[in-house]
Amino acid sequence: MSKLTGWLYTLRSLVRRNAADREMADEIAFHIERQTRKNEALGLSVDEARRRALQEFGGTTRWREEARRARGSAPVDLIERDLRQAVRGLARNPAFALMTTLTLALAIGANAAMFGIVDRLLLRGPEHIAEPEQVVRVYVTRTLSNGNVTTSGLQPYVLYRGVRDHTSAFSAVATYLPLDLRVGVGLDARLVHATYATPDLFTLANVHPALGRFYTTEEDAPPHGEPVVVLGYGYWQADLAGDSAIVGRVVTLDDRRFRVVGVAPRGFTGVERAPIAAWLPMSTRPVDPRAGDWTTSWRPATPGILVGRLAVSNVQAAAQLTALVRREYEGPDKAMRTANVRVLPLSYDVQGTEPRELGVARLLAGVAIVMLLVAAANMTNLTLARALSRRRELGVRVALGAGRWTLVRLMILETVMISLLGGLLGLALAHWGGAVVREALMPNVAWDELPVNGRVLALTVAATLITGVVVGLIPALRVSGGDVALALRAGRSDSAGGGQSHGRARASLQVVQLTLSLVLLFTAGLFVRSLRDVQQLDLGYDRDRVLAVDISFPRPDSGATSARDGGVMANRAQYEDLLARFERVPRVASASIAFSSPLSAVNITKLRIPGRDSVLSGKDGMALLVAAGPHYFETVGTRILRGRGIEISDVSSAEPVVVVNETMARALWPGEDAIGRCVVLGVANGDACARVVGIARDVHQMTLKEDALNQAYVPWGQDRRLVGGSVMLVRGQSDASRLIPALTEVVRRSAPGVRSLQIRSFEELLDPQVRPWRVGATVFGLFGAIVVLVAAIGLFSVVSYLVTQRTHELGVRIALGARRGQVLRLIMGGALRTALIGAVLGGVLSVAIGPTLQPLLFDNAARDPLLLAGVAIGLLAVAVVASAWPAWRATRVDPLLALRSD
Amino acid sequence: MAGQSSIVPGTLEMLVLKTLSLEPMHGWGIGERIQQLSQDVFAVNQGTLYPALERLQRDGLITAEWRVTENNRRARYYGITRSGLRRLETEREQWERSVRAVDLIMRTT
Fold first, then answer.
1. How many CB atoms lie within 10 A of CB A518?
2. Most buried pick, A223, A307, A439, A785, via CB within 10 A?
3. Across the interface, which of A35, A68, A70 has its CB nearest the CB of B28?
4. Is A493 helix (H, G, I), strand (E, B) or coil?
């Protein structure tokens, strides 16, 4: 208890420190007064009595101090005094304070922002998942007969059941499949992220519902589960106003009705990162009954992602699962008999690779640390220079009785104050910039609400304090270690005593800065070039001119006799009506329609050539099939190399025709003219032979990087299987995205009953693939610019400092007849030598880290001598400019003034 | 003032507590009272009183309040708390034990 009251007492006296001091003074005054009166009573004169009283007390100041110390507030007083001194010291040199604070703020801000991102993505795992490193996804790797190795993260339900029931690899295992569901109707309809999952996903995550309950294994019993749903917390809050009576009600998702049984806990995203609006039982997925029993098939149309919490080591788990797959597989795929199962952490995607965004984020975090090092090196350098110029002042302080420790403390206090200020500013930057970077890099992740959370704050405070102490400690120890008397005796311009070693320390710090600057600039350059290459990449169509209008019409009345055909025909009429209206919109160049056009879907068909004996194998026997309407090629901007495209006359009653791409023409009819040939698309015997009427350029169907495949375009009007789910394409005369409001208005007026409408440009559809490079180029460029700026300012300040230090010497030289050029060389020589060493080392380092960067770049080599040389020359130019100004000032030194100044 | 000596080291706080257990008192008065009670054997080093009073306050053994003296002057009066009284008791026992012990040693011939 006494300890607590003691603390409280100290605290109270701290809070009312001034009042306490005043009271103490009053009290002592009273004491002296009484003692004086007592002495007077003994017969002394008034003055003598007072003098005696003071003497008897023994120094009022001393005892007042002692009493204050007893109150426990003395150390704080001391700190306050030191702080005041430090503030005064910094205020004497505001340029130094401002510069170091700003550079440090940028570096610390970058670190805080990037740590927040990397922490969320790599260190902590998805929210609510305890021990995320124990949770893995299951991948099956097969070696195909042609030697290719493929890895898939999509597994059949039968494997999930096998793993669950017949292995001990996992303490909990679940299968799930994310997808987009439509909520709402008509033009207001929108897509939300949802997930089909077996209920053991909740067990695996060990979460509890925020409301109601999760669905049960009985409700998720195959083949047809109960139509129940667990809503995501965010969706429940935003779209249903957090209605607590929601449990038991029915919601409509994708035109199907689901009964709400509960609400998932806040922030729960399963083992993925994107916010989820609805959790549905795995067995409520729509399945095509013709595809066979999805629960027993090894190649079902609807697989899922398999995730488990390890009960054994990951090697043992992989071994158990490999044995299971090889033993249990039933089917024609021989490669499955030798398949290998791998288990990989959650940071890997469905293809079993680490997403590029993650690599970029990690690299950026590394770069942020480098930035902090550069900023710290710079600050150390400036502090050192400043400390050396203060040697005389420090010498005086020591002579007046300040201990070495006091000096060190004072200098560290200054740098800590700067770094704290920088840290504060940095947090503000991180709050703002972190939000920007994470949205730019990965918009579909359920991020923490604030970019600066407790963990980020803790790291920032630690980094800030460490930086402040280390940066202050080095110069403080160096300077305070010297002979004080020497410093005092020496003149102002002294730099001889230990100047050599200080100079070397300064130079090496600068070399470090310049080296790192060069590496950063080089990396930024590589990313900029990747971005440019990606943007200029010829995909086979125009990406900035074309809009994809994804529209879905209501299903036709089920009462119709042949609903299927009738529906398709009804839809076709609606599509054609809208197309005609789109074409009349001002600034629309052309409009067309397609089933599985680029960036919307992939539709693969088998093919055969009548009369040819050899069976087409592998890639040659298949083609990406696109059903294209009239004007399709000119609308998307794919060139027809020979023959013609699809025309209005290509209707179902006309002769079946097909347009093939270059690759297909070459593969099927090598060395011959493909035009006029005949090819059967599809496998059914009744499929008619289609005549090749044109050859089109190869296009990228879905991704920026893909091998050319056979592509076949059939008339949209000829194949009625390929109509529902078509996408309309609109080409604008200029920037297409400006047409979106006009097109939306057309739909609103002429087809108000549509179930959903989504209009996006090809550019937008490609954006997720371009994003890593864009963010990489932007952020690296920004970081690079900051670091170069810091290095330039550092160089400038140090050269300026050197000039000031050598004013006397320069004066002598000039007095003795040194020419301006000689002085310039003298001053700049050192700086340029430093820059040159930095550039060379940076070049070596850049080449060395090439292999690390390679996977993050787009197709281009990480070794680019031209870029490297350019960056190095640029950096040297910056060094010249930064040192030339102070060096020029040196040539203006007035010899008389310089000589007299001491 | 011949015959006066400083108080025994380490006993100042006990003596202050003892004084205050008789009646609340201001700083100067405490010094005077100690001197008086010791029949002028001990002279309190006056300055040392105030740090000691702060320490005792911090430990919650005494409290302080501003009051008006009989001469109409404002002065800070100190009073002993209940834990102060308990502390005084233990200090007194300890003191007596050590005095007896010292006595025993000194009597040994």
1. 30
2. A307
3. A35
4. coil
pTM: 0.69
Does A496 have pLDDT greater than 60?
no
Nearest CA distance, B72 vs chain A (angstrom): 12
Test B45 with A30 for CB contact under 8 angstroms: no
Flag if B46 and A31 touch (Cβ within 8 Å): yes
Instruction: Determine contact, residues A151/A351, Cβ cutoff 8 Å.
Output: yes
Which of A57, A60, A73 should we substitute to test contact with B (largest number of B Cβ atoms within 10 Å)?
Answer: A57
Tokens of A756: 């959903």
Single-letter residue type at B60:
G
Residue of A393, A364, A276 whose CA lies nearest to A775: A364
Look up residue A616 and give its DSSP letter: P
Mean pLDDT, residues A751-763 taken together: 84
Q: How far apart are CA A389 and CA A811, in angstroms?
A: 19
Task: Report DSSP letters for B43-91, one per residue.
Answer: ---GGGHHHHHHHHHHTTSEEEEEEE-TTS-EEEEEEE-HHHHHHHHHH
Tell which of B6, B16, B28 to mutate to test the A interface (max A CBs under 10 Å).
B28
Give the H/E segment covering residue A378: helix A356-389
A286: preceding bond cis by omega (within 30 degrees): no
Q: Residue A28 and residue B52: Cβ atoms within 8 Å?
A: no
ipTM of predicted complex: 0.88
The residue of chain A nearest to residue B87, with distances taken between CA atoms, is A2
H-type helices in B5-46, by residue range? 12-22, 27-37
A2 vs B contacts (CB less than 8 Å): 59-60, 83
Burial class (CB in 10 A: 0-12, 13-18, 19+), A55: exposed
Q: Across the interface, which of A2, A23, A57 has its CB nearest the CB of B59?
A: A2
> Is B45 in the A-facing interface, judged by CB distances under 8 Å?
yes
Average pLDDT over residues A367-376: 83
Band of pLDDT at residue A498, cut at 50, 70 and 90: very low
Residue type at position A526: L
**Cα atoms in the Cβ-side hemisphere of radius 13 Å centred on A804:** 12
Nearest to residue A217, comparing CAs of A202, A232, A207, A195? A202
